[in-house]
Specification:
- The complex is a heterodimer of chains A (about 250) and B (about 300).
- With about 250 residues, chain A is of the alpha/beta class.
- A nine-stranded mixed beta sheet of chain A has the order 11-10-9-12-8-1-6-7-13, with helices on both faces. Chain A has a two-stranded antiparallel sheet with strand order 2-5.
- Chain A is globular and about 65 Å long.
- The N and C termini of chain A lie far apart (about 60 Å).
- Chain B is an alpha/beta fold.
- Chain B is about 25% helix and about 30% strand.
- In chain B, the strands form two sheets. Chain B has a nine-stranded mixed beta sheet, with helices on both faces. Chain B has a five-stranded parallel beta sheet with strand order 12-11-13-14-15.
- Chain B is elongated, with a radius of gyration of 21 Å.
- Classes of the chains: A alpha/beta (about 250), B alpha/beta (about 300).
- Bound molecules: flavin-adenine dinucleotide (FAD) and adenosine monophosphate.
- Flavin-adenine dinucleotide sits at the interface of chains B and A.
Chain lengths: ~250, ~300
Amino acid sequence: MKILVVIKRVVDHSIKVRIKPDGSDVDITGVKMSINPFDENAVEEAILLKDKGVASEVVVVALGTAANQDVLRHSLAMGADRAVLIESEQDLQSLAVAKLLKPLVLREQADLILIGKQAIDDDAGQTGQMLAALLDYPQATFASSIQVAENAIEVTREVDGGTETLGLTLPAVITTDLRLNEPRFVKLPNLMMARKKAIETVSASDLEVDIQPRLKLIKVAEPPARKPGIKVNSVQDLLEKLRAHEGIQI
Amino acid sequence: MKVLILAEHNGSILNPSVYQAVTAAQFWNAPIDVLIAGHEVQAVAQQAALIAGIHQVIHADAPQLKHQLAEHVAKLLASIGHEYAVILAAHSSFSRNILPRAAALLDVAMISDVLDIQADNTYARATYAGNVLTTLQSKDSIQVLTVHSSNFDVVEKSSTAAEVVSIQAPNAEYSTRWLSEDRAQSERPALSTAKIVISGGRSLGSAETFEQLLSPLATKLGAALGATRAAVDAGYAPNDIQVGQTGVSVAPDLYIAVGVSGAVQHTYGMKDSKIVVAINQDLDAPIFQVADYGLVADLFEAIPELTAAI
Ligand SMILES: Cc1cc2nc3c(=O)[nH]c(=O)nc-3n(C[C@H](O)[C@H](O)[C@H](O)COP(=O)(O)OP(=O)(O)OC[C@H]3O[C@@H](n4cnc5c(N)ncnc54)[C@H](O)[C@@H]3O)c2cc1C
Ligand SMILES: Nc1ncnc2c1ncn2[C@@H]1O[C@H](COP(=O)(O)O)[C@@H](O)[C@H]1O
């Protein structure tokens, strides 16, 4: 079984992103960038499946500028076999990403596509489902467990109110949730080795799909702040204030 | 021009968020249709017909729609989508699973978790774990979106039923099989609609303490329980009560955060609550920045005291 893992380079989750003074966009110059956490779970799962002898090859793919080399190398250092960059200077929105991935999936004849359930920058949560639609493949989203037997896969999904388990056969698209696994730490010697590996670059324009953004960014702003609160001295004080000022009868 | 709502239901009852999705749909001032997809769900279609102000209920009943798998429901949406200018649903794991797939089949973008509709193609939504409020304009001929239900009022029920129109679902074969589900059976109110939510963090230390300390308080207050990701990951609480960027969003009248540090990924899911109370022993915990009332205290003392006092 061949696995294709999609990864996105995003502002690290620990960073509070700045907004440009003119409100035209966020300002991410010089900001720490990392692999999208959900995608790191996807890479880890693919490597675990390879370690178990279920997967034969793990190919990671990123989309965007050459800056993506770092997250691709990070994935190679985790244990991925090959890395591909679909290179583009465009703002790539979920639908465009799905359109670019489709020909790559077909070229690679990937059996399983693992892709994060959402990117922590745009928080869209769309690309995996869109890719599954374009390929007309079955999908299992928000996976917290993936069990593989031969060609059949059982996926437990985290859904509102609990979990749900689906069975599907390959080829298929699975989007990964954080509780799927605990991504391994990358060891320095592995990172050094990954530096030497070649990264294949495919030009987005060669894939001949429509990647024009459909959504126009009008502006960005700070979200409305909550009005400042107060400290209370004791549980009694808290209850008195809730009752007197908020009319909460508890 | 018409608006279509993809309605979430569990096979017998309509999800309450559908009534909020209808308010969002009214923005377009156009006839609103409500799609009920499932198997033997006539009763749900009848409930939907009683939503005030809707035009029609579109009822698609077929065996392959039984578990509302994304493959089949998206195909159904794509088969009727061109009749609509807008297709929307309340943001939930149900709609997040299906709508992106339908949008791609219709070759249009999707806008997720819309907080505010500003024009018939312009929306505000949160990005970067709620740190940024982004305004977007869609150029597509069909607008596909999910809405942040707590930002929209609940519409009334009507005494006269709207027309229910049955349609044929496209027949397609997928290997996907629904095997099982494990849904929490709780006496408590549903987390997403509860008036009071009490959330616990990692500091509760174990599943037993989480239960022993927070349950009596929740019972007394008629509250739902929530948790941080750290608490869920540690196994102190089930996954479906995780509040935040990657869990559920809640907006109760009262939110009590107990031993919760207040990471942005958590506050994303609760900062629309009317009143926030935070109990944390660390004066500098970020949760106090979003709290109306902050109590700097050891939760192991404060919670029993609070429970006893109400
Ligand atoms: C991609 C991504 C997505 C995420 N999604 C979510 C999400 O959806 N929801 C979510 O919640 N988190 C999410 N997180 C995790 C988030 O960043 C935080 O790590 C998490 O919310 C912290 O949980 P916590 O407050 O329970 O634990 P901690 O941060 O460890 O805080 C514990 C708090 O308890 C206090 N405390 C300790 N002992 C006591 C005591 N005896 N009495 C009173 N107070 C005490 C401490 O002062 C501290 O403030 C996500 C992270 C990432 C990277
Ligand atoms: N520009 C991109 N480059 C690489 N991967 C992406 C990109 N956009 C989305 N993805 C993948 O799609 C997943 C979901 O993203 P989204 O739909 O944007 O929330 C991410 O976790 C990535 O795996």
